[in-house]
Amino acid sequence: MNGHISPDLNPNVHTMMSAEPNNSAIFDENQESSPNSPEFLATESEASVTDEAETATEEIAFSDEFSLLGAMAIDLQEEIDNLKQQLEEQTQQVDAYKKRYISLAAEFDNFRKRTGKEKEELETKIKGKTLMEILGVVDNFERARTQIKPVNDGEIGIHKSYQGVYKTLVESLKRLGVSPMRPEGQSFDPTYHEAMMREYTDEHPEGTVIEQLVRGYTLGEQVLRHALVKVAAPKEADPNAEQSEAAAISLEESV
User: Fold this and answer.
1) Domain positions in the chain
2) pTM here?
3) If exposure means fewest CB atoms within 10 Å of the residue's CB, which of 4, 94, 97, 144 is most exposed?
4) Fold that domain 181-255 belongs to in CATH
């Protein structure tokens, strides 16, 4: 028992031992906060790995997003190309429709002009055929006017009466576009005139219309009826004149 102190018997010693600073704990704390400590290096390494992982993840995500954008851009370009092709096809179709419309419009215009001209010609033909029947009545009025010579009041009254009808008929024909020909003194034109007689004379140039035997008429620019005329011929071409001259010479010789 000498030399050995029991902790139970020496409480002050235990107290003194407890009151001593815990150097190991202080050392541990200082060791943890030191940048060269293994724990700090391990933590920093873990943080670096975590940052690199996050960076790699971000790069992968960015790469995926870029790839997605690239795919979307390709799809968009294909859609644009398709739309351009459709637009070109639609434009060509519109051009074809325009050409067809212009062609149909030209055909319709030609058809309208042609049918209008045919209608006008048909109307003129029907009108001319009807007027030809009326011209016979006009001819009779004109013959009566030149041949009948009224001598008393009764005949004069009748003459004035039918001449009034004749005048009304002529005015109606004028309103329909009928015009009488007046070829006297003009050169013979087979388009408007029909030669019925020749008169050998030196008083008129050859081919001059001397007299209108039956009046001719026009309907607008169309000949409704040709004028029957007497045409002047040179007197030296008269065969009857040569026969008359030969007969006169023979008569003188016999005398």
Assistant:
1) 89-176, 181-255
2) 0.52
3) 4
4) Nucleotide Exchange Factor Grpe; Chain A, domain 2 (2.30.22)
